[in-house]
Specification:
heterotrimer, A mainly alpha, B alpha/beta, C mainly alpha, B: alpha/beta, 13 strands, C: about 75% helix
């Protein structure tokens, strides 16, 4: 009887596990062991180099680490600017205001657009060389010509510009999830505190934030995972790696695969990247456990 | 309440769904002999299809040209298909000779030498020698590929500098006298800067175009022998001649010859800018004629050689190599495929392609009817060279460091000496690896 | 002593500030979309000269041209078919698995779940080639089934994660009631869990629909026949073929963006409702 029940339970996960095994696990194993070879992706023969690829990534590939730093920078901006913006917007929409539904729809339009489209659109808007240069023109028109700048072409500002556009595209998801969380906080709590004489800031600090910690952690995890792996938007926006200034790990992996025909090395880079992401997620998970205890 | 409450309709839906997916309309079956060709040349799809219609009328053999764009995606597709032993009858290989060699060694490419040599080499002799050389592996080549010809070129191209005649007039320069020396170029650069115009545009966000110009000047400054010797590892990249090559880019950037943001551009962007009269110079290949014509038919421009930095050795430009097609060694229609390629590279078809798509023909006899501007490119054919015919090739890691180093020089993050040292360091690392 | 007027004015000012904030963000959200739309009505010559949002002349034929010259008809249908199939597939597969991970006991449950989570974190570069070879061996290459199965896998981990989080928070009383009534496990899943999960399911639908609709590389590699290609592949070819004829390209992009926006508009009711029911929150 118990065995029958357990077998029935397996049926629930069977389709997912089957698909997962065939289409993820098997390619993963193939790619994983390829990281140990020096192979160009075409020849029938491969050269076993053991951990040679990994050693090269760690010690002899400054462009890889520059790409990781860039991704980290974009992720930092996403965690701060993007998520704080999303939170503020959600908080603003949580109050009883008109047009709440309208804003809910509008704010989710950026995530809905494809990354290629977003990259092209913003490139046209920002870029001075082959675009309409709208931002600079506006600055000049309102009398601030000294702020006009080659935002996308200047290596010093390009990465920040990319990070901002990425945040623009991403805040919609955070907004939705934060709004969800805010709406589950019972109004009575706020009213009770208000009666006791607390002002808006105090009720925000004592009620809103503590109750929202689980949501904040969830959004943080999703943000980190998603932003570290981003690349389509970046390449669509900047169209090149700008001598490494706008390089990100996935672009480096693709470059190894196609550009220099080093398939084995690309696989090693992919595995290294995965390891780093797992470590980061683990740290975040630990941190979230701590944060919940505070709550 | 009923025991199992999943409505029967649920299972019916699942069944219907699986049936739908399984029986999704498939394309109709093929005719008797059909050749499949994979390519990436978006601007030539229409011309190709016209030619296949003519071929079918003539021989009753159907030929399908399948276009996969952009070229990055095309490369991925070809490599995946190679892994799955699923290549079409005819396809092209984008990439370096090293990759071409790998495809041959993996058994994917048919050796065309017997067909080329037939009847005293009738097919072989139709082509410009440079165009053919790209598809040829000479005896004792460093790729350890059996000597022979493995592909048929369908066009040739040269990569040169271009200048906008109207903008020249605006700058007060003679539109019929492009700069002949590097010093003159730098002077024009200063004028461009003070007139607040954009100088040279080129797809230097893509590394290979930088490589092209840098090597042109390398040949000009130190001569072919020394360049090849460097690749073989006999000369160091820190040699003063190489530092001079790197410095050229610094000088061009400082005087205003290069447009701002040139290293953020892909070639398409550069083409757009030049076509819209926004840049004085461009560095692009002869395929650009077709592109500019589509973007701005009234563009007033001409081709020129990169201005010489030294008069010790001749200026060389990259060329000869255009697009080529190879035959799948495992194809079931090998003979038909070869026949089609022979027809495609014949005088008449090449002339049609040249006129219709503004690309230089690979067939020597088809030059008569090409448009004027294209002829300017064709005139400098004897000065062409190309890495694919040098017989030796540089390590990819070194090439990447070289090109990226120049990018860094242009954005003023590194000095020519620093880049030279770095490139040499990587070269020595790669040489050490090879020896192991 | 703070008077009523003080509080009232303060309230009004704060309200105004909040609205100003919201509106300015909304404008930046809308602007690129409107720009795309307005560019699609211009011509190649005017697109760089006429920089206003409202074009001087509306060239509606751009849409017709884009559709015909891009051959969008067939590809549009393909994209819709793939998106719908994958979404339906994932909803069923992921919700079954998520329910099991949340409510059922069986050995290996935790390990399997961790594996799915790990998949979310570890990207597999070069997976295209691996999938190509795999599908080839299974004789599923160049078939819709093969592509759909691959795409189901792409969104599987995240969907299972979202659904399991919801199922964990679901009140057990309803399930217990159904079980007492003699409902089988599958029945509980179908009759109790799924309906309650509508909001999260809506999020899963939107998320996966986005992924499939915007995908093009895998489709380009797996399919040989133009017959099967989705819209995004056609768009890429279109881009090169018209040597970046921007207005036509914008028209093409708008055509491809519209269905997804419609899907979102349809689903967003459920999402927010579900959100208010305390669905996704941890």
């Amino acid at each position: 009887m118990k065995i029958k029940s357990t077998l029935e339970n397996y049926i629930f996960v069977l389709p997912a596990v089957a698909i997962f095994t065939i289409f993820y696990v098997i390619p993963f194993i193939w790619v994983f062991q390829l990281g140990l070879y020096d192979w160009d992706g075409i020849l029938p023969t491969k050269v076993f180099v053991g951990l040679g690829n990994f050693k090269e990534i760690i010690f002899q590939d400054p462009s890889w680490w520059q790409a990781m730093r860039n991704a980290g920078y974009i992720t930092l901006i996403a965690l701060t600017f993007q998520n704080i913006l999303a939170f503020l917007l959600a908080w603003a929409c949580d109050r009883e205001i008109r047009l709440k539904n309208f804003y809910r729809v509008i704010f989710f339009i950026p995530p809905v657009l494809s990354e290629i489209v977003v990259g092209m659109a913003w490139r046209f808007i920002i870029n001075d060389i082959d675009g309409a240069n709208i931002i600079n023109r506006t600055l000049i028109n309102i009398g601030l010509p000294q702020l006009a700048h080659s935002w996308l072409s200047d290596p010093k500002t390009a990465l920040t510009t990319v990070a901002l556009v990425h945040s623009w595209k991403g805040f919609g998801w955070g907004f939705l999830i934060f709004l969800a969380g805010l709406q589950t906080i019972p109004r009575e709590l706020y009213e009770a505190v208000h009666v006791d004489g607390a002002n808006a800031w105090q009720s925000f600090r004592k009620i809103t934030i503590p109750l929202m910690i689980p949501v904040i952690v969830l959004v943080a995890i999703l943000t980190v995972l998603g932003t570290m792996q981003a690349f389509v938007l970046i390449i669509s926006l900047v169209q090149s790696e700008l001598a490494g200034h706008t390089s990100v790990p996935v672009l480096r992996i693709l470059a190894s695969m196609r550009g220099s025909s080093r398939f084995g090395y690309a696989c090693a880079q992919g595995i290294g990247f995965g390891v780093i992401l797992v470590v980061i997620s683990f740290i975040q998970y630990r941190f979230s456990r701590r944060a919940r205890q505070i709550q | 309440m009923a025991k199992s409450q999943i409505p029967k309709s649920f299972f019916a839906c699942i069944l219907l769904f699986t049936l739908l997916v399984g029986c999704y309309p498939k394309p109709a079956g093929k005719a008797t002999t059909t050749l499949t060709v994979w390519h990436w040349m978006t601007d030539r799809q229409a011309a190709f299809q016209e030619l296949t219609a003519r071929y079918e009328a003539k021989t009753a053999v159907k030929v399908n040209f399948d276009l996969y764009a952009p070229s990055d995606a095309y490369t991925q597709k070809v490599r995946a298909a190679a892994q799955g032993i699923n290549l079409p009858d005819i396809f092209g290989i984008l990439g370096e000779k090293r990759d071409f060699a790998s495809f041959i060694k993996a058994g994917h490419i048919l050796d065309l030498t017997p067909y080329m040599e037939e009847n005293n080499g009738t097919w072989k002799n139709k082509f410009f020698s440079n165009a053919l050389a790209v598809n040829e592996f000479p005896e004792g080549n460093s790729y350890t590929v059996k000597a022979g010809v493995y592909g048929a070129p369908i066009d040739t191209m040269t990569i040169q500098m271009l200048y906008n005649k109207d903008l020249f007039k605006e700058l007060g320069l003679n539109p019929n006298r492009p700069p002949a020396t590097f010093a003159e170029l730098l002077d024009i650069g200063k004028k461009i800067k003070s007139a607040n115009m954009q100088g040279l545009v080129s797809g230097w966000g893509e590394l290979w175009m930088i490589d092209c110009l840098a090597n042109n000047y390398a040949f000009n400054i130190m001569g072919e022998e020394k360049v090849l010797a460097t690749i073989r590892g006999e000369v160091s990249y820190t040699d003063p001649d190489w530092v001079r090559v790197f410095s050229l880019f610094k000088e061009m950037q400082e005087t205003g010859v290069l447009s701002l943001g040139i290293i953020t551009m892909v070639n398409k962007t550069a083409e757009q800018l030049f076509a819209n009269n926004k840049a004085v110079f461009a560095f692009n290949g002869s395929w650009c004629v077709n592109v500019y014509k589509a973007m701005n038919p009234s563009l007033n421009y001409a081709a020129m050689l990169p201005p010489q930095a030294s008069d010790k050795y001749p200026m060389r430009i990259w060329g000869g190599a255009g697009s080529s097609f190879m035959v799948n060694a495992r194809s079931n229609n090998k003979e038909e495929a070869v026949k089609f390629l022979k027809w495609l590279t014949d005088k008449e078809q090449q002339a049609y392609l040249a006129q219709g798509t503004n690309n230089l023909p690979a067939n020597k006899d088809s030059l008569s009817k090409i448009p004027d501007i294209l002829a300017q490119f064709a005139d400098d054919m004897e000065l062409t060279t190309h890495p694919n015919i040098w017989g030796v090739s540089e390590f990819p890691a070194v090439i990447e460091a070289f090109d990226k180093g120049i990018q860094s020089i242009i954005i003023q993050e590194k000095t020519p000496q620093q880049v030279a040292a770095e490139v040499q360091r990587i070269k020595e690392r790669e040489l050490a690896k090879r020896r192991r | 002593m703070k008077t009523n007027i003080y509080y009232k004015t303060k309230g009004v000012i704060i309200n105004l500030l909040i609205h100003a904030f919201l509106i300015s963000v909304a404008v930046t959200c809308l602007y690129p979309l409107l720009w795309m739309l307005s560019s699609s009505f211009k011509t190649q010559e005017t697109i760089f000269k006429d920089l206003s949002l409202i074009p001087a002349k509306f060239h509606f034929q751009n849409y017709y041209l884009a559709w015909i010259q891009g051959g969008f008809g067939r590809y549009f249908l393909n994209s819709i078919f793939y998106t719908a199939s994958v979404v339906i597939g994932i909803v069923i597969v992921a919700s079954l698995a998520a329910y099991a991970f949340s409510r059922l006991r069986f050995p290996g449950r935790n390990i399997l779940f961790i594996m799915f989570m790990a998949a979310m974190m570890i990207p597999v570069p070069g997976s295209f080639v691996a999938l190509y070879v795999l599908l080839n061996k299974l004789h599923l290459r160049n078939t819709p089934v093969g592509y759909i199965l691959c795409m189901i896998n792409v969104g599987l981990s995240t969907s299972i994660f979202l659904l399991k989080t919801f199922f964990d928070k679901m009140p057990k009383e309803l399930e217990d009631a159904a079980r007492i009534d003699g409902c089988s496990k599958l029945g509980i899943w179908w009759n109790v869990a799924l309906p309650l999960a509508k909001p999260v399911l809506a999020v899963v639908v939107v998320f996966n629909a986005l992924n499939v609709w915007n995908e093009y590389i895998l489709a380009l590699i797996i399919f040989d026949s133009k017959h099967f290609m989705p819209l995004q592949v056609a768009l890429q070819t279109f881009q090169g073929e018209f040597v970046t004829n921007y207005p036509l390209l914008m028209a093409g992009l708008t055509i491809t963006a519209l269905p997804i926006i419609i899907v979102y508009l349809l689903m967003q009711k459920y999402i927010v409702k579900g959100v208010t029911a305390g669905a996704i929150v941890g």
